Amino acid sequence: MMKIEEVEAISYKNNEAKKVKENVVQDETITLTINNDISRSLSAIEDSLEEFAVGYMFNENMVDSMDAIKEIKIEGNQIYAEIDDTLLKTNETVLCSDSAGGWRSKIKTVKEVKSDFQVSVHELIDRIEELKDNAEIWQATGGTHVAGIVYNDQFVVKEDVSRHVAVDKVIGYGLLHDFDLSNSYVIYSGRMPADMVIKMTRVGVPILASNAAPANSGYNIAKKGNVTLVGFLRGERCNVYNNQNRVIFD
After folding, report:
1. Is the pLDDT reported for residue 91 higher than 80?
2. Which pLDDT score, from 0 to 100, does residue 38 have?
3. Which one, of 160, 154, 162, 181, lies nearest residue 58 by Cα?
4. Which intervals of the chain form a coiled coil (predicted)?
5. Which one, 26, 128, 156, 169, has the greatest CB density within 10 A?
């Protein structure tokens, strides 16, 4: 069931104003509580919350193994995660997932992605179109970001009002379903700043592709972490930044 609500609005077009019904996305305040201690609240779509929790904890460098996660319970908009205390990695940036404010303090934990994975530019062009085709809430409301993860012939798409949460959800899905993330790539709608590229280095994803542009901070992190960025992926064009050998142009 799509998280959509119909509301009243006035539409102005071609010098004419009229009352209309418009769809808006339904977001909720989602709270993730870890070991009854660490708590994080954010605005998100109440969907794929287990995937979000897993992706968030990996991407925030709280855990680096699925073995660390003992249990995740979902109760409405509340997520409760139990982590093995001996495997829980705490750091000062744990509360910064949905903003760029904490990325500078995360640079020291960026690890180099080691992967020989390659993908055809033609596949990337096809996937960005599939991404839009599968973005049902975005098509109905224009109010979401959409992210996808590709592994072999599997292409999983998630949407959210937050681009960070959308990416956390697809990475969490891959981790929960035993994807080899070193042979996968993430494709999404949005810019590629440092905080988004850092997510790739956390879990070893070698390629991040987008219809938008990289930021200087994202490019520098990609160089440090050996992540390939594919930007301006629109129509029959794209730009490839860093370790371009991962994209096959023939």
Report:
1. no
2. 87
3. 181
4. 114-141
5. 169
Name the nearest CA neighbour of 27 among 160, 192, 172: 160
Of 239, 12, 51, nearest to 159 by C-alpha is 51
CA distance 89 to 177: 23
How many CA atoms lie less than 13 Å away from 243 in the CB half-sphere? 23
Q: What are phi and psi of 113, to 5 degrees?
A: -80, 120
Give the integer Cα–Cα distance in Å for 42 and 82. Answer: 19
* CA distance readout (Å), 79 to 30, 38, 56, 151: 8, 12, 12, 27
Domains of the chain, with CATH numbers?
28-100 (3.10.20.10), 119-248 (3.40.140.10)
Grade residue 2 by pLDDT with cuts at 50, 70 and 90. Answer: confident
Are β-strands 154-160 and 247-248 bridged in parallel, bridged antiparallel, or unpaired?
Answer: unpaired
